[in-house]
Automatic annotation (TrEMBL):
Species for this entry: Maritimibacter fusiformis
Annotated InterPro entries: Cupin_2, RmlC-like_jellyroll, RmlC_Cupin_sf
Record-given protein name: Cupin domain-containing protein
SUPFAM superfamilies: RmlC-like cupins
Residue ranges occupied by any Cupin type-2 domain in the UniProt entry: 69-132
Domain of life: Bacteria
Length: 322
């Protein structure tokens, strides 16, 4: 496979196309400056303006959120796994019906495998524009986003209505719900009572891992971060590894499913029969199934890379293993 054959499977950080109208809180003060990126897969955007960079099915979706300081993403829920790692900045993640059940602060490289069936939100608490990279379980990412009722109500006050068809309508542009399409119904009190509200100790202890701790493991051998035998024991339909300079190898390998390389630190040279490419933090590369390849740092200094590959496990609720 030649280098040109893979050019369409590499998305450079500088080429990412943002969408500022992706979700229902796009006009809500405090959330109206966020940018959403769909890198691989259809994602969960509610807007036709969302650009999809790579639409090849992988068994999971890759996306990103970019936000200036003090900008937040409103409380929502997913039916499948949602995993974030911090690429740039300092972020506060919070969860619960009203966002007050618990919170955690994440720094660059930290990873958070957010449990399903909880309302979660996040905000950039750094001093510069920040970016978090996301992995969503399943090719259809669970069928969309489930919003906390107050988010839908606040959005309506600022001109955005979410239809029961999962699409947004902006009254500021003269749009209205099509005939026969009603507004997305609010969750009932009975439905809300079934949504989990885990404590900070339960979430942080089970689903958050710090970059420096993972590096200490990955310097010995590639670290299984998320997986049945991972540091975070889960089976969300994909596995995540961390590879560092010390555990990288020039020995080529392949997978029977497409895999994704996402550098978090340093520059990485990816080689395969017929070509090579260099990736930087923020770049995303989709490697075809059964393509033998290797990835090693191409420059001196700190180097770490997250690797994602689908498994045969269903992309449903996260597995709360012991």
């Amino acid at each position: 496979m030649t280098k040109s054959d893979l050019e369409d499977r590499i998305v450079r950080y500088g080429d990412l196309i943002p969408c500022k109208t992706a979700f229902i809180d796009a006009h809500t003060p405090g959330s109206d400056q966020k940018e959403n990126f769909t890198i691989i897969g259809g994602g969960v955007s509610e807007s036709p303006d969302q650009h999809v960079h790579i639409d090849i099915p992988h068994g999971f979706n890759i996306g990103a959120a970019g936000q200036p300081p003090k900008c937040r993403n409103s409380l929502h829920n997913h039916r499948t796994a949602e995993v974030f790692f911090v690429l740039k900045g300092r972020w506060r993640f919070f969860w619960g019906r009203w966002g007050d059940a618990g919170e955690v602060i994440l720094e660059e490289g930290d990873i958070f495998n957010i449990p399903t069936n909880i309302f979660r939100g996040f905000e950039n608490i750094g001093t510069d524009y920040g970016m978090i990279m996301a992995i969503l379980g399943g090719d259809d990412a669970g069928g969309g986003v489930i919003w906390a009722p107050q988010v839908i109500e606040d959005a309506a006050d600022h001109g955005l209505v979410l239809g029961e068809n999962g699409k947004l309508y902006d009254s500021k542009k003269g749009e209205k719900l099509p005939e026969g399409v009603g507004p997305m119904p609010l969750l009932s009190e009975e439905e809300l009572a079934k949504v989990d509200e885990p404590t900070a100790m339960q979430v942080i202890g089970g689903y958050v891992r710090r970059y420096n701790d993972l590096v200490a493991i990955a310097d010995k051998a590639p670290a299984k971060v998320i997986g049945e035998n991972g540091v975070i024991r889960d089976k969300p339909g994909f596995e995540v590894d961390l590879i560092t300079r010390k555990s990288a190898t020039e020995t080529r390998h392949s997978h029977d499913k497409p895999s994704v390389l996402m550098p978090v630190k340093g520059h990485w040279r990816v080689e395969w029969d017929g070509g090579s490419a260099t990736l930087a933090p923020g770049d995303t590369m989709s490697v075809p199934e059964n393509l033998a390849h290797s990835a090693v740092p191409s420059m001196t200094g700190e180097a770490a890379l997250y690797h994602v590959v689908a498994t045969d496990d269903p992309a449903g609720a996260t597995w709360r293993g012991n």
